[in-house]
Design goal:
It contains eleven helices and three strands; from the N terminus they run αααααββαβααααα. It has helices at 19-28, 32-47, 57-61, 64-69, 73-90, 114-124, 147-154, 163-172, 175-187, 193-206, 216-220, and strands at 93-99, 106-111, 139-140.
């Protein structure tokens, strides 16, 4: 364990942190990387000026201190991506991806605060973008609802024990499979993740609607070997 020499004498800089972070958010963050990324984003947003106090993955990745705190060089980038995804899924950060004419898409992250929500609303209305001198037309790329939203909209409150499984499923199965599996489960009035997972696993083994069975990553990363197969027999 690396020690800490203590805060030095003299005047120190401080970063305001909302009380709700300690009373609400800190109680539900159960992943160390997410906690580190969240705290860093709270600090970084305070350093910015102007209306569009946005963050980018590239900006976060350039901070050597943050990256050292996320692990070794080989795994830090993946940890950063995971931490940001968790913060977005939890609702701490807001994500916006915009397509400017003739340019690649750009993704920004805003703190889910009054200022951040206002900035996102302006971007979605096409009024302005971060760094714009003059407002220009913006074409937003539609985001599929992530698996956390799908779960909470169709099953109920997300339980912390399922977070890892849902993240892994979202990375393993195509987004359209996940949406269709939730749709089937709701249509059958079986609102359980085990049922939805079984549908996805069956499609990975047997193929979906005339498609061949999934290869490589999906075939290797099954959650449970057919334990719920009987749930999806119609």
């Amino acid at each position: 364990m690396r020690g800490f020499a203590g805060f030095p004498n003299g005047q120190l800089d401080f970063t305001p942190v909302p009380d709700l972070f300690f009373s609400d958010l800190l109680l539900v963050i159960d992943d160390l990387v997410e906690l580190k990324v969240t705290l860093y984003c709270l600090w970084l947003v305070q350093q910015k000026q102007g209306e569009f106090r946005h963050l980018t993955l590239a900006e976060l990745a350039q901070d050597e201190t943050l990256m050292r705190g996320l692990g070794d060089a080989a795994g830090a980038a993946e940890a950063l991506q995971d931490g940001v995804e968790r913060a977005v899924a939890r609702g701490t950060l807001l994500q916006v991806t915009a397509q400017r004419p003739g340019r690649p898409g750009e993704t920004w992250y805003f703190l889910n605060s009054e200022r951040g929500r206002g900035a996102v609303a302006r971007i979605e209305r096409g009024e302005s973008l971060p760094g714009d001198d003059v407002a220009e037309q913006v074409y937003l790329r539609a985001h599929r609802p992530n698996i956390f939203n799908l779960y909470e909209q169709n099953i109920g409150l997300l339980q912390p024990l399922l977070v890892e499984e849902l993240i892994d499923a979202e990375r393993t199965f195509p987004p359209e499979w996940i949406e269709e599996a939730f749709r089937l489960a709701v249509g059958q009035n079986v609102r359980r993740w085990a049922y939805i997972r079984a549908i996805l696993e069956r499609w990975a083994r047997e193929g979906r609607q005339g498609q061949p069975p999934a290869e490589s990553k999906m075939a290797r990363r099954r959650y449970l070997g057919g334990e719920y197969a009987d749930l999806v027999e119609h």
